[in-house]
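Blinded run. Sample ID left blank on purpose so nobody reads anything into the name before looking at the predicted structure. Input follows.
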Amino acid sequence: MPKAKMTGKKRDNKKNHGSKWIRPEKRLAIYLRDGMCCAYCGATVESSKEPLSLDHLLPASKGGGNHEGNLITCCLKCNRRRGDMDLDSWLSQELGDKKETVAKFIVKHTAKDLKPFKVEAKAIRARRRTKK
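Blinded prediction complete.
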Protein backbone atom coordinates (compact mmCIF):
# COMPACT_ATOMS: atom_id res chain seq x y z
CA MET A 1 0.00 0.00 0.00
CA PRO A 2 1.34 3.49 -0.77
CA LYS A 3 2.26 5.41 2.33
CA ALA A 4 0.86 8.85 3.08
CA LYS A 5 3.38 11.43 4.17
CA MET A 6 3.21 11.63 7.97
CA THR A 7 4.68 14.94 8.95
CA GLY A 8 4.17 17.30 11.81
CA LYS A 9 4.95 17.44 15.45
CA LYS A 10 4.24 14.53 17.72
CA ARG A 11 1.36 15.10 20.09
CA ASP A 12 1.16 14.36 23.71
CA ASN A 13 -1.44 11.75 24.62
CA LYS A 14 -3.97 14.21 26.05
CA LYS A 15 -7.54 13.47 25.06
CA ASN A 16 -8.88 16.05 22.62
CA HIS A 17 -12.62 15.71 22.27
CA GLY A 18 -15.01 17.63 20.12
CA SER A 19 -13.96 20.12 17.48
CA LYS A 20 -11.87 22.42 19.67
CA TRP A 21 -8.56 20.68 18.92
CA ILE A 22 -8.37 22.17 15.42
CA ARG A 23 -9.18 25.61 14.08
CA PRO A 24 -12.49 25.77 12.17
CA GLU A 25 -10.82 27.14 9.02
CA LYS A 26 -8.30 24.30 8.96
CA ARG A 27 -11.03 21.68 9.55
CA LEU A 28 -13.13 23.09 6.69
CA ALA A 29 -10.05 23.36 4.45
CA ILE A 30 -9.32 19.64 4.95
CA TYR A 31 -12.96 18.77 4.23
CA LEU A 32 -12.75 20.82 1.01
CA ARG A 33 -9.39 19.26 0.04
CA ASP A 34 -10.94 15.80 0.39
CA GLY A 35 -14.07 16.66 -1.60
CA MET A 36 -16.40 16.79 1.41
CA CYS A 37 -16.60 12.99 1.52
CA CYS A 38 -15.43 10.10 3.67
CA ALA A 39 -12.12 8.76 2.38
CA TYR A 40 -13.07 5.26 3.51
CA CYS A 41 -16.70 4.68 2.45
CA GLY A 42 -17.35 7.67 0.18
CA ALA A 43 -20.26 9.06 2.23
CA THR A 44 -20.87 12.74 1.52
CA VAL A 45 -22.46 15.56 3.46
CA GLU A 46 -25.57 15.16 1.32
CA SER A 47 -25.78 11.35 1.27
CA SER A 48 -24.98 10.39 4.84
CA LYS A 49 -26.79 10.69 8.13
CA GLU A 50 -23.39 10.57 9.79
CA PRO A 51 -21.56 13.89 10.13
CA LEU A 52 -18.10 14.25 8.66
CA SER A 53 -15.13 14.20 11.00
CA LEU A 54 -11.35 14.10 10.73
CA ASP A 55 -9.33 10.94 11.22
CA HIS A 56 -5.66 10.78 12.15
CA LEU A 57 -3.87 8.47 9.69
CA LEU A 58 -1.32 7.78 12.39
CA PRO A 59 -3.58 7.69 15.46
CA ALA A 60 -3.09 10.41 18.05
CA SER A 61 -2.73 7.68 20.69
CA LYS A 62 0.32 6.44 18.79
CA GLY A 63 1.96 9.85 18.42
CA GLY A 64 0.19 11.13 15.31
CA GLY A 65 -0.01 14.90 15.05
CA ASN A 66 -2.62 17.35 13.81
CA HIS A 67 -0.70 18.26 10.64
CA GLU A 68 -2.88 18.25 7.52
CA GLY A 69 -0.75 15.41 6.09
CA ASN A 70 -1.89 13.20 8.96
CA LEU A 71 -5.58 14.13 8.75
CA ILE A 72 -8.20 12.81 6.35
CA THR A 73 -11.93 13.44 6.09
CA CYS A 74 -14.13 10.54 7.11
CA CYS A 75 -17.63 9.98 8.40
CA LEU A 76 -18.12 9.53 12.11
CA LYS A 77 -19.18 5.91 11.60
CA CYS A 78 -15.89 4.97 9.90
CA ASN A 79 -13.89 7.02 12.42
CA ARG A 80 -15.49 5.17 15.33
CA ARG A 81 -15.07 1.77 13.65
CA ARG A 82 -11.37 2.36 13.05
CA GLY A 83 -10.57 3.73 16.50
CA ASP A 84 -6.79 3.68 16.90
CA MET A 85 -6.29 0.59 14.74
CA ASP A 86 -3.36 0.62 12.32
CA LEU A 87 -4.59 2.10 9.01
CA ASP A 88 -3.22 -0.66 6.78
CA SER A 89 -4.75 -3.39 8.96
CA TRP A 90 -8.09 -1.59 9.18
CA LEU A 91 -8.26 -1.00 5.42
CA SER A 92 -7.55 -4.69 4.79
CA GLN A 93 -10.13 -5.81 7.34
CA GLU A 94 -12.90 -3.37 6.39
CA LEU A 95 -12.44 -2.76 2.68
CA GLY A 96 -10.76 -5.83 1.25
CA ASP A 97 -10.42 -5.38 -2.51
CA LYS A 98 -11.19 -1.62 -2.30
CA LYS A 99 -8.14 -1.07 -0.09
CA GLU A 100 -5.80 0.05 -2.89
CA THR A 101 -8.34 2.55 -4.26
CA VAL A 102 -8.79 4.11 -0.82
CA ALA A 103 -5.04 4.13 -0.20
CA LYS A 104 -4.49 6.00 -3.48
CA PHE A 105 -7.21 8.51 -2.55
CA ILE A 106 -5.52 9.14 0.81
CA VAL A 107 -2.06 9.60 -0.71
CA LYS A 108 -3.38 11.89 -3.47
CA HIS A 109 -5.39 14.11 -1.14
CA THR A 110 -2.91 14.39 1.72
CA ALA A 111 -0.22 15.44 -0.77
CA LYS A 112 -2.26 18.46 -1.92
CA ASP A 113 -1.21 21.91 -0.77
CA LEU A 114 -3.77 23.06 1.79
CA LYS A 115 -3.20 26.81 1.23
CA PRO A 116 -5.81 27.34 -1.51
CA PHE A 117 -8.35 25.36 0.51
CA LYS A 118 -7.61 27.49 3.58
CA VAL A 119 -8.30 30.63 1.53
CA GLU A 120 -11.62 29.16 0.38
CA ALA A 121 -12.51 28.01 3.90
CA LYS A 122 -11.77 31.45 5.32
CA ALA A 123 -14.01 33.08 2.68
CA ILE A 124 -16.85 30.63 3.39
CA ARG A 125 -16.66 31.27 7.12
CA ALA A 126 -16.55 35.05 6.54
CA ARG A 127 -19.73 34.84 4.42
CA ARG A 128 -21.44 32.86 7.17
CA ARG A 129 -20.52 35.49 9.78
CA THR A 130 -21.89 38.35 7.68
CA LYS A 131 -25.24 36.59 7.18
CA LYS A 132 -25.92 36.35 10.92
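Unblinding after everyone has recorded impressions. The chain has one domain: 24-131.
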